[in-house]
Design brief:
Helices cover 85% and strands 0% of the residues. The chain contains 6 helices and no strands.
């Protein structure tokens, strides 16, 4: 009886491991999607309202993964941390947790380095550049989500079942 319970637990563990890997991909895609959304919103706000960067960041604080980073960034700014450093400190933990590639993380860090560092036209072109530069990476992550998220779930289940069968 205990052997059967152990085998079931091994199967469930494999399934949950695959599901966990699948969720990480989904969270990464959502984070990048929210980042691109913010860059687009930032561009629009700069074009039509010419608000200070800190006001734009404060206005778009939310509860989703990327928007929580904006909250942390805003807190750092209020503590007199310079904007590029505040951006990096706020963005770095989720980038590491979600295993975002070095190319993508460099783009995201670079966006923060140049926030508010030029006139309105410079900020608008900065946003357009980042949206265009990020598109191939984002599309690749979306494709990975479609293909690999199901694969990881199935592989986890199969791996758990194989391990369980080996112990029989």
């Amino acid at each position: 009886m205990l052997k059967l319970i152990g085998l079931i637990i091994l199967s469930i563990t494999g399934t949950l491991s695959g599901y966990s890997a699948s969720q990480k991909i989904s969270k990464r895609v959502k984070f990048l999607e929210q980042y691109l959304e913010f860059v687009s919103i930032y561009e629009t706000e700069m074009r039509y309202t010419v608000c200070p960067v800190t006001d734009i960041i404060e206005k778009h604080i939310g509860n989703d993964s990327f928007y929580l980073c904006l909250k942390k960034c805003n807190e750092h700014i209020k503590n007199k941390v310079p904007l590029p450093i505040a951006w990096k400190q706020a963005i770095e933990p989720p980038i590491k947790d979600l295993s975002i590639s070095d190319n993508v993380s460099d783009l995201i860090y670079g966006f923060g380095d140049s926030l508010g560092a030029s006139d309105v036209d410079g900020q608008i072109s900065h946003c357009k550049y980042h949206i265009e530069a990020m598109k191939p990476y984002f599309l690749n992550e979306q494709e990975n989500k479609k293909v690999k998220s199901k694969l990881y779930s199935i592989l986890g289940t199969c791996f758990g079942a194989v391990i369980a069968l080996l112990f029989i």
